[in-house]
Amino acid sequence: MALLSCVFVIILGLTGSIMAFEPEIDHLIHPKLFNVTPGTHPLSLVEISAAINKALPGEAITAFTLSTSADVAYQASITGRSVFVNPYTGEILGIRAIGSDFLTFVHQLHLRLAWQRPSDPGKQIMSWAGVLVLFMLISGIHLWWPLKRVTIQPGAKGWRWWFDFHNVTGIVSLAFVLMLTITGICIGFDNVIVPMFYKATGSQPSGQPKTPPPPSDAKAITPDQAMNIARQTLPGATPFSINVPGAKGSYQVRSRYPEDRTPGGRSRVIIDQYTGAVLFSEGSRTAPAGTRMVIANRAIHTGDIFGLPSKTVMAIASFALVLQVISGLMIWLKRTKRSGRG
Hints:
The protein is α+β, with helices and mostly antiparallel strands and 342 residues long. It is built from eleven helices and eight strands.
């Protein structure tokens, strides 16, 4: 049972260390999809839509994701696929099935063992694996405390070297692994923890607006106009994602403030597609306190909170968890071997 538990802990650690740099790795291994030469001005979304419709006739565009870097492609979502397009020329750089790439598999493996079922058993297993890690950390502190070993003894070999290595990596990474573990447990058990955030702060999650029925013979505003409305609604936030609604839907624009380093953004504006009226807006700076706690918890867990430095630290801490399991197993094997000889 202990060995089986170690498998889940190793999966958490390995996948977590990769996920810390998920966008960067994706760009690195798929340069032809993402890299573009910056131009003077990007095309409008209407112009990009026309370029996609010309290259892929009959395909309905459901969303756009805009890059905030001048040398990175835009993405458009069509049925089950992402289209990568040069925002300056409208050239189609490639098409990828949504959820088919290696990093999506890594992400789902971390969250739910890549085991998607209605009751989400994979998520439950990995959430309890996080609780196991917390127990391991607490028990590890208890075992470390009497000796308080923080160095590897010069000349140490075999069992002793692994013992010292286990202690050193454990104590050096402890604070960060604790942060990873606690925030991960909060995400894993979000159905229980998130209501506690709102209760503790005396706040309530924002309600979703109702979309009014479309006026007769009304003409929808363009995605570009909706993006401009979002910019005016949340000054200082940069819109980067917008859906293309059906006849009875609304535009939903996601934005980032400079301090919002998470790829998904945490600010959004919902806009009536016919009148341009703002039906709902919530910026990460002014969201309910419970919502801000959820945002902060996730940003700490992913390492996005301070950008590249914190992502690097959390990636190393996540991999340190793998080293802890491996060194612990080696200590057990070496000790077993010694006992057998004795």
